[in-house]
Amino acid sequence: MRYGKTIALLFSVIVLFMSCSDHEDIIMEEPHTLSIRGADISYLPLIRTSGIITRNIDGAPEDMLTTLANAGMNTARLRVWHNPGDGLSGLQELKGLVNEIKLKGLKVWLSVHYSDTWADPGHQEIPASWRNIPFQALKDSVYQYTSKLMEELDPDYIQIGNEINGGLLWPEGSRQNQHEQFLELLGEGIRAVRDNSTDALIMMHFAGINGATLFFNEIRTLDYDIAGLSYYPLWHGKDLSALQSNLDNIRRLQDKEVVIAETSYPFTLEWSDWTHNVVGLDEHLILPAYPATPQGQYDFLKRIKEISLSSKALGFCYWGAEWVAHDGAESTDGSSWENQALWDFDFKALPAISVFEEE
Q: Over the stretch 95-107, which tens digit does the pLDDT of each residue have?
């Protein structure tokens, strides 16, 4: 009897020890953190030259970049156009801004449009200086230009194209009509990055969630690191669970890191200048959960952050954070994003900016 009790007691101790060990493993598992808490601040040079005074969340005058960095933003996203007519978002303008961003200890994310102007799902216009050249020369232009960006800007993250749902450099790089050439052009951009950096992470960027899984499956042979998705309720639907499931599926099926590359939300449906705003109606919102109020904007961005954490994404990036009505109340060519910026109509930082805090 005494022997049997001893065996039983020993067995209980072993079970308890194993249980404690398993419990300790669970406790010791590190929670997921976001390596990208970003904002696109491509309009910052324009905002600065306008002369407006921006304020931090306490109401003190402060430069936007400083306010964002102090709030916890750790990555600044910048678009780059090949040869913009006014110089905005061109390579020369970006050099100084990139250096400033790095001096603040922030990471740099380049969104390369491979165009002289906006590139998105509806526009992928070849730069003027690259038009009507043979395809091999176009490939070489992509390689040389991307190499120059890497040499002179040395980004931490780089997109080969912006929202390339239908391809890039149309018509030669049409995803639908010239699929092999589409892949070849992307491949030249990727090769240029790899030849000039061992650290930069390469991103492919799709706008929306419908069709995203198919898109990333089509480019699975390419040597890239991150799958980026844009998500705006106006264009991509109001089902935030669909956003999360797409991030989960792409990460699992493609074995790639994922990131919410663009998102935004309004703090009001009012306006501060006479430029038509992109978002201006209740039907553009996710109601009743996220009204167009400072609190609603904060709650939406907080949910985006939670989805990023849950999906083990690299993080998220807020688009148009700085694009306030900088050109005066009478302007008809000012900001169409003023009510989605992270500063209010008095140029004071909004509560949503606190979401950049490290979790």
A: 999 999 999 999 9
Written as six digits, the tokens of 345 are: 């109509």
First to last CA, the chain: 56
- Residue 300: which of 276, 280, 316, 324 has the closest Cα? 316
- Mapping DSSP to helix (H, G, I), strand (E, B) and coil, where does residue 253 land? helix
Averaged pLDDT for residues 164-178: 98
Give CA 207 to chain center in angstroms.
Answer: 11
Supply the DSSP symbol for 121: T
Q: Which residues contact 157 (CB under 8 A, 6 or more apart)?
A: 36, 75, 107, 108, 109, 110, 200, 201, 202, 203, 226
The DSSP code sequence of 124-158 is -BPPGGGTT--HHHHHHHHHHHHHHHHHHH--SEE
pLDDT class for 28, splitting at 50, 70, 90? low
Structure-block tokens of residue 241: 């669970």
Distance CA 174, CA 70 (A): 42
E runs forming strands in the chain: 36-40, 75-80, 107-112, 157-160, 201-207, 226-230, 257-263, 315-318
The distance between the two most distant Cα atoms of the chain, rounded to a whole number of Å, is 95
Which pLDDT does position 29 carry in this prediction?
Answer: 59
Determine the residue type at 293.
T
CA 313 to chain CA mean position, Å: 11
The label of the residue with tokens 């169409």 reads 336
**pLDDT(5) > 50:** no
SS3 189: helix
| Secondary-structure percent of the chain, ordered helix, strand, coil, rounded to 5 | 40, 15, 40
Beta-carbon count within 10 A of 219 CB = 18
Distance CA 352, CA 77 (A): 18
Cis peptide bond upstream of 266, omega within 30:
no
Give the whole-angstrom CA distance, residue 186 versus residue 167: 9
pTM of the model: 0.91
